TrEMBL record:
Coiled coil start-end: none
PANTHER family per record: CYTOCHROME BD2 SUBUNIT II
Keyword Chloroplast included in the entry's annotation: no
Principal location: membrane
Topology versus the membrane: Multi-pass membrane protein
Residue intervals passing through the bilayer: 6-32, 78-103, 115-139, 159-181, 201-220, 232-252, 261-281, 301-323
Record key words, sorted: Cell membrane, Membrane, Transmembrane, Transmembrane helix
Subcellular location: Cell membrane
Protein family (similarity comment): Belongs to the cytochrome ubiquinol oxidase subunit 2 family.
InterPro entries the record matches: Cyt-d_oxidase_su2
Protein name: Cytochrome d ubiquinol oxidase subunit II
Amino acid sequence: MSTVVALVLLLAVTAYAVFGGADFGAGFWDLAAGGEERGRRPRALVEQSIGPVWEANHVWLIFIFVVAWSAFPGAYGSIWLTLFVPLTLAALGIVLRGASFAFRKAVAGRRARTVLGAGFAAASVLVPYCMGSVAGGIASGRVPPGGKAGDPVDSWLNPTSVVAGLLAVALVAYLAAVFLVWEARGAGEEDLARYFRRRSVVSAVVVAAVLVVGLLVVRTDARPVFDGLTSQAAPVVIAGALCGAGALVLLVRGAARGARVLAALAVAATVVSWGVAQWPYLLPETLTVADAAAPSGTLTAILVAVGLFVLVVAPGFVLLYVLEQRRLLPDEGVEDAAEARAVPGPG
Protein backbone atom coordinates (compact mmCIF):
# COMPACT_ATOMS: atom_id res chain seq x y z
CA MET A 1 0.00 0.00 0.00
CA SER A 2 2.88 2.39 0.72
CA THR A 3 4.07 1.84 -2.86
CA VAL A 4 0.72 2.97 -4.25
CA VAL A 5 0.73 6.10 -2.09
CA ALA A 6 4.31 6.86 -3.14
CA LEU A 7 3.25 6.51 -6.78
CA VAL A 8 0.36 8.93 -6.19
CA LEU A 9 2.80 11.38 -4.63
CA LEU A 10 5.21 11.10 -7.56
CA LEU A 11 2.38 11.66 -10.06
CA ALA A 12 1.26 14.74 -8.11
CA VAL A 13 4.80 16.14 -8.12
CA THR A 14 4.94 15.50 -11.87
CA ALA A 15 1.61 17.25 -12.43
CA TYR A 16 2.82 20.28 -10.47
CA ALA A 17 6.07 20.32 -12.43
CA VAL A 18 4.18 20.38 -15.73
CA PHE A 19 1.19 22.62 -14.98
CA GLY A 20 2.73 24.80 -12.31
CA GLY A 21 6.04 24.74 -14.18
CA ALA A 22 4.49 26.21 -17.33
CA ASP A 23 2.98 28.88 -15.08
CA PHE A 24 6.32 29.79 -13.47
CA GLY A 25 8.10 29.61 -16.82
CA ALA A 26 5.73 32.18 -18.26
CA GLY A 27 6.88 34.50 -15.48
CA PHE A 28 10.47 33.89 -16.55
CA TRP A 29 9.65 35.17 -20.04
CA ASP A 30 7.89 38.14 -18.46
CA LEU A 31 11.21 38.90 -16.75
CA ALA A 32 13.19 38.44 -19.97
CA ALA A 33 10.82 40.42 -22.21
CA GLY A 34 12.81 43.66 -21.99
CA GLY A 35 11.71 47.25 -21.43
CA GLU A 36 8.15 48.49 -21.08
CA GLU A 37 7.44 49.10 -24.76
CA ARG A 38 9.52 46.26 -26.14
CA GLY A 39 8.04 43.74 -23.74
CA ARG A 40 4.45 44.96 -23.84
CA ARG A 41 3.05 42.35 -26.26
CA PRO A 42 4.95 39.32 -24.90
CA ARG A 43 3.86 40.26 -21.37
CA ALA A 44 0.26 40.67 -22.51
CA LEU A 45 0.35 37.16 -23.99
CA VAL A 46 1.86 35.78 -20.77
CA GLU A 47 -0.87 37.40 -18.71
CA GLN A 48 -3.57 36.14 -21.04
CA SER A 49 -2.23 32.58 -21.01
CA ILE A 50 -1.83 32.10 -17.25
CA GLY A 51 -4.66 34.34 -15.99
CA PRO A 52 -7.39 31.68 -15.83
CA VAL A 53 -5.26 28.89 -14.31
CA TRP A 54 -2.47 30.34 -12.16
CA GLU A 55 -4.34 29.91 -8.87
CA ALA A 56 -5.61 26.42 -9.68
CA ASN A 57 -2.13 25.11 -10.45
CA HIS A 58 -1.07 25.48 -6.81
CA VAL A 59 -3.73 22.99 -5.70
CA TRP A 60 -1.22 20.34 -6.79
CA LEU A 61 1.31 21.70 -4.29
CA ILE A 62 -1.21 21.60 -1.44
CA PHE A 63 -2.11 18.04 -2.45
CA ILE A 64 1.59 17.07 -2.34
CA PHE A 65 2.09 18.51 1.14
CA VAL A 66 -1.04 16.88 2.56
CA VAL A 67 -0.21 13.43 1.16
CA ALA A 68 3.45 13.67 2.19
CA TRP A 69 2.87 14.66 5.81
CA SER A 70 0.00 12.19 6.22
CA ALA A 71 1.61 9.18 4.55
CA PHE A 72 5.29 9.72 5.38
CA PRO A 73 5.36 11.94 8.51
CA GLY A 74 8.90 11.16 9.60
CA ALA A 75 10.42 11.93 6.21
CA TYR A 76 8.22 15.02 5.85
CA GLY A 77 9.44 16.30 9.21
CA SER A 78 13.09 15.71 8.29
CA ILE A 79 12.68 17.47 4.94
CA TRP A 80 11.09 20.56 6.50
CA LEU A 81 13.52 20.72 9.44
CA THR A 82 16.50 20.43 7.11
CA LEU A 83 15.34 22.38 4.07
CA PHE A 84 13.23 25.04 5.80
CA VAL A 85 15.23 27.88 4.19
CA PRO A 86 14.50 27.09 0.49
CA LEU A 87 10.97 25.90 1.33
CA THR A 88 10.23 29.14 3.18
CA LEU A 89 11.71 31.20 0.35
CA ALA A 90 9.54 29.27 -2.11
CA ALA A 91 6.42 29.90 0.00
CA LEU A 92 7.17 33.61 0.24
CA GLY A 93 7.89 33.67 -3.48
CA ILE A 94 4.52 32.09 -4.28
CA VAL A 95 2.74 34.71 -2.15
CA LEU A 96 4.75 37.57 -3.68
CA ARG A 97 4.18 36.26 -7.17
CA GLY A 98 0.44 35.89 -6.72
CA ALA A 99 0.00 39.28 -5.08
CA SER A 100 2.09 41.03 -7.73
CA PHE A 101 0.22 39.35 -10.57
CA ALA A 102 -3.17 40.14 -9.06
CA PHE A 103 -2.47 43.79 -8.23
CA ARG A 104 -0.31 45.06 -11.06
CA LYS A 105 -3.34 45.58 -13.29
CA ALA A 106 -5.18 47.36 -10.48
CA VAL A 107 -2.65 50.20 -10.20
CA ALA A 108 -2.27 52.98 -12.73
CA GLY A 109 1.11 54.45 -11.75
CA ARG A 110 4.01 53.35 -13.94
CA ARG A 111 6.40 52.99 -11.01
CA ALA A 112 4.01 50.82 -9.00
CA ARG A 113 3.29 48.63 -12.03
CA THR A 114 7.02 48.23 -12.65
CA VAL A 115 7.68 47.20 -9.05
CA LEU A 116 4.81 44.70 -9.04
CA GLY A 117 5.84 43.34 -12.42
CA ALA A 118 9.40 42.87 -11.17
CA GLY A 119 8.08 41.07 -8.08
CA PHE A 120 6.01 38.72 -10.22
CA ALA A 121 8.87 37.96 -12.60
CA ALA A 122 11.60 37.57 -9.96
CA ALA A 123 9.44 35.26 -7.84
CA SER A 124 8.72 33.18 -10.95
CA VAL A 125 12.44 32.37 -11.07
CA LEU A 126 13.02 32.10 -7.31
CA VAL A 127 10.30 29.50 -6.65
CA PRO A 128 11.35 26.84 -9.19
CA TYR A 129 15.00 27.32 -8.23
CA CYS A 130 14.18 26.70 -4.57
CA MET A 131 12.02 23.69 -5.42
CA GLY A 132 14.84 22.26 -7.50
CA SER A 133 17.35 22.84 -4.71
CA VAL A 134 15.07 20.94 -2.33
CA ALA A 135 14.97 18.00 -4.75
CA GLY A 136 18.76 18.16 -4.99
CA GLY A 137 19.16 18.13 -1.23
CA ILE A 138 16.97 15.05 -0.95
CA ALA A 139 18.60 13.24 -3.89
CA SER A 140 22.13 13.83 -2.58
CA GLY A 141 21.32 12.27 0.79
CA ARG A 142 21.62 15.45 2.84
CA VAL A 143 18.30 14.96 4.66
CA PRO A 144 18.68 12.63 7.67
CA PRO A 145 15.91 10.19 8.62
CA GLY A 146 13.95 10.01 11.84
CA GLY A 147 12.48 13.51 11.91
CA LYS A 148 15.91 15.04 12.51
CA ALA A 149 17.35 18.24 11.11
CA GLY A 150 20.31 18.20 8.78
CA ASP A 151 22.65 21.06 7.91
CA PRO A 152 20.41 24.06 7.04
CA VAL A 153 23.02 25.52 4.66
CA ASP A 154 24.82 22.62 2.99
CA SER A 155 21.52 20.81 2.47
CA TRP A 156 20.54 23.22 -0.31
CA LEU A 157 23.76 25.07 -1.14
CA ASN A 158 25.61 22.10 -2.59
CA PRO A 159 26.54 21.02 -6.13
CA THR A 160 23.51 18.78 -6.69
CA SER A 161 21.05 21.33 -5.31
CA VAL A 162 22.52 24.16 -7.38
CA VAL A 163 22.41 22.21 -10.62
CA ALA A 164 18.90 20.91 -9.79
CA GLY A 165 17.72 24.47 -9.14
CA LEU A 166 19.16 25.70 -12.43
CA LEU A 167 17.65 22.72 -14.22
CA ALA A 168 14.23 23.49 -12.74
CA VAL A 169 14.40 27.10 -13.97
CA ALA A 170 15.55 25.99 -17.42
CA LEU A 171 12.84 23.32 -17.68
CA VAL A 172 9.97 25.62 -16.75
CA ALA A 173 11.26 28.33 -19.11
CA TYR A 174 11.46 25.79 -21.93
CA LEU A 175 8.01 24.38 -21.26
CA ALA A 176 6.41 27.82 -21.03
CA ALA A 177 8.05 28.99 -24.26
CA VAL A 178 6.62 25.97 -26.12
CA PHE A 179 3.16 26.57 -24.65
CA LEU A 180 3.33 30.28 -25.53
CA VAL A 181 4.03 29.41 -29.18
CA TRP A 182 0.66 27.64 -29.17
CA GLU A 183 -1.02 30.54 -27.36
CA ALA A 184 0.36 33.08 -29.84
CA ARG A 185 -0.84 31.08 -32.81
CA GLY A 186 -4.27 30.70 -31.27
CA ALA A 187 -4.41 34.47 -30.86
CA GLY A 188 -3.44 34.96 -34.52
CA GLU A 189 -0.12 36.64 -33.63
CA GLU A 190 2.38 34.87 -35.85
CA ASP A 191 5.21 37.26 -35.03
CA LEU A 192 4.86 36.40 -31.34
CA ALA A 193 4.73 32.71 -32.26
CA ARG A 194 8.10 33.10 -34.00
CA TYR A 195 9.38 35.12 -31.02
CA PHE A 196 8.61 32.33 -28.56
CA ARG A 197 9.63 29.56 -30.95
CA ARG A 198 13.16 30.98 -31.09
CA ARG A 199 13.24 31.14 -27.31
CA SER A 200 11.91 27.61 -26.94
CA VAL A 201 14.65 26.27 -29.20
CA VAL A 202 17.36 28.16 -27.29
CA SER A 203 15.96 27.07 -23.93
CA ALA A 204 15.82 23.44 -25.12
CA VAL A 205 19.54 23.61 -25.86
CA VAL A 206 20.15 25.14 -22.43
CA VAL A 207 18.16 22.34 -20.77
CA ALA A 208 20.22 19.72 -22.60
CA ALA A 209 23.46 21.40 -21.51
CA VAL A 210 22.34 21.64 -17.87
CA LEU A 211 21.27 17.98 -17.94
CA VAL A 212 24.70 16.88 -19.15
CA VAL A 213 26.45 18.96 -16.48
CA GLY A 214 23.93 17.72 -13.93
CA LEU A 215 24.71 14.08 -14.66
CA LEU A 216 28.41 14.76 -14.12
CA VAL A 217 27.66 16.50 -10.82
CA VAL A 218 25.27 13.79 -9.62
CA ARG A 219 27.82 11.13 -10.50
CA THR A 220 30.20 12.48 -7.87
CA ASP A 221 27.82 14.14 -5.39
CA ALA A 222 24.80 11.79 -5.42
CA ARG A 223 26.16 8.49 -6.66
CA PRO A 224 23.22 6.26 -5.63
CA VAL A 225 20.82 8.38 -7.69
CA PHE A 226 23.25 8.43 -10.63
CA ASP A 227 23.44 4.63 -10.49
CA GLY A 228 19.64 4.51 -10.51
CA LEU A 229 19.43 6.88 -13.48
CA THR A 230 21.76 4.66 -15.48
CA SER A 231 20.01 1.41 -14.53
CA GLN A 232 16.40 1.11 -13.39
CA ALA A 233 15.43 4.62 -14.53
CA ALA A 234 17.30 4.39 -17.85
CA PRO A 235 14.14 3.64 -19.93
CA VAL A 236 12.44 6.74 -18.52
CA VAL A 237 15.56 8.84 -19.16
CA ILE A 238 15.75 7.62 -22.76
CA ALA A 239 12.02 8.24 -23.31
CA GLY A 240 12.39 11.77 -21.96
CA ALA A 241 15.38 12.44 -24.21
CA LEU A 242 13.47 11.20 -27.26
CA CYS A 243 10.46 13.36 -26.38
CA GLY A 244 12.72 16.39 -25.95
CA ALA A 245 14.46 15.75 -29.27
CA GLY A 246 11.13 15.22 -31.00
CA ALA A 247 9.76 18.46 -29.57
CA LEU A 248 12.85 20.32 -30.82
CA VAL A 249 12.41 18.94 -34.33
CA LEU A 250 8.73 19.89 -34.37
CA LEU A 251 9.52 23.39 -33.08
CA VAL A 252 12.05 23.95 -35.84
CA ARG A 253 9.44 22.77 -38.35
CA GLY A 254 6.74 24.95 -36.79
CA ALA A 255 4.43 22.16 -35.52
CA ALA A 256 3.36 23.75 -32.23
CA ARG A 257 0.64 21.26 -31.22
CA GLY A 258 2.84 18.16 -31.29
CA ALA A 259 5.76 20.03 -29.77
CA ARG A 260 3.64 21.06 -26.81
CA VAL A 261 2.71 17.47 -25.96
CA LEU A 262 6.25 16.16 -26.37
CA ALA A 263 7.72 19.01 -24.31
CA ALA A 264 5.32 18.25 -21.46
CA LEU A 265 6.22 14.56 -21.64
CA ALA A 266 9.93 15.40 -21.58
CA VAL A 267 9.54 17.48 -18.41
CA ALA A 268 7.36 14.79 -16.83
CA ALA A 269 9.96 12.13 -17.67
CA THR A 270 12.66 14.21 -15.97
CA VAL A 271 10.69 14.25 -12.72
CA VAL A 272 9.65 10.60 -12.92
CA SER A 273 13.21 9.48 -13.63
CA TRP A 274 14.33 11.07 -10.34
CA GLY A 275 11.68 9.12 -8.42
CA VAL A 276 12.47 5.85 -10.17
CA ALA A 277 16.23 6.34 -9.76
CA GLN A 278 16.10 6.54 -5.96
CA TRP A 279 13.49 3.79 -5.53
CA PRO A 280 12.87 2.15 -3.05
CA TYR A 281 14.27 5.01 -0.97
CA LEU A 282 12.31 8.08 0.02
CA LEU A 283 15.52 9.52 1.47
CA PRO A 284 18.32 7.89 -0.54
CA GLU A 285 20.32 5.22 1.24
CA THR A 286 18.78 5.97 4.66
CA LEU A 287 14.98 5.62 4.59
CA THR A 288 12.87 3.41 2.33
CA VAL A 289 9.29 4.14 1.32
CA ALA A 290 8.06 1.15 3.32
CA ASP A 291 9.93 2.16 6.49
CA ALA A 292 8.76 5.79 6.23
CA ALA A 293 5.10 4.96 5.70
CA ALA A 294 2.36 5.69 8.23
CA PRO A 295 0.18 2.84 9.59
CA SER A 296 -1.95 0.96 7.08
CA GLY A 297 -5.17 2.56 8.35
CA THR A 298 -3.80 6.01 7.56
CA LEU A 299 -2.65 4.91 4.11
CA THR A 300 -6.09 3.44 3.41
CA ALA A 301 -7.75 6.72 4.39
CA ILE A 302 -5.36 8.62 2.12
CA LEU A 303 -6.16 6.40 -0.84
CA VAL A 304 -9.89 6.86 -0.21
CA ALA A 305 -9.37 10.63 -0.16
CA VAL A 306 -7.36 10.42 -3.37
CA GLY A 307 -10.19 8.46 -4.97
CA LEU A 308 -12.65 11.17 -3.96
CA PHE A 309 -10.27 13.79 -5.36
CA VAL A 310 -10.22 11.97 -8.70
CA LEU A 311 -14.01 11.76 -8.76
CA VAL A 312 -14.86 15.26 -7.51
CA VAL A 313 -11.95 17.62 -8.10
CA ALA A 314 -10.11 16.22 -11.12
CA PRO A 315 -13.06 16.71 -13.53
CA GLY A 316 -13.10 20.38 -12.57
CA PHE A 317 -9.41 20.65 -13.45
CA VAL A 318 -9.98 18.96 -16.79
CA LEU A 319 -12.88 21.30 -17.57
CA LEU A 320 -10.82 24.35 -16.56
CA TYR A 321 -7.87 23.40 -18.78
CA VAL A 322 -10.13 22.51 -21.73
CA LEU A 323 -12.01 25.81 -21.51
CA GLU A 324 -8.75 27.72 -21.19
CA GLN A 325 -7.23 25.97 -24.21
CA ARG A 326 -10.33 26.75 -26.26
CA ARG A 327 -10.21 30.37 -25.02
CA LEU A 328 -13.75 30.21 -23.65
CA LEU A 329 -12.92 31.78 -20.29
CA PRO A 330 -13.23 35.53 -19.60
CA ASP A 331 -10.16 37.58 -18.77
CA GLU A 332 -9.07 37.02 -15.17
CA GLY A 333 -9.01 39.83 -12.64
CA VAL A 334 -10.00 43.46 -12.69
CA GLU A 335 -9.98 45.96 -15.51
CA ASP A 336 -6.56 47.36 -16.33
CA ALA A 337 -6.37 50.58 -14.31
CA ALA A 338 -3.91 52.28 -16.65
CA GLU A 339 -6.09 51.64 -19.69
CA ALA A 340 -9.20 52.75 -17.83
CA ARG A 341 -7.55 56.04 -16.86
CA ALA A 342 -6.40 56.62 -20.43
CA VAL A 343 -9.94 56.32 -21.85
CA PRO A 344 -11.81 59.65 -21.57
CA GLY A 345 -15.16 59.56 -19.82
CA PRO A 346 -18.48 60.54 -21.43
CA GLY A 347 -19.05 64.19 -22.15
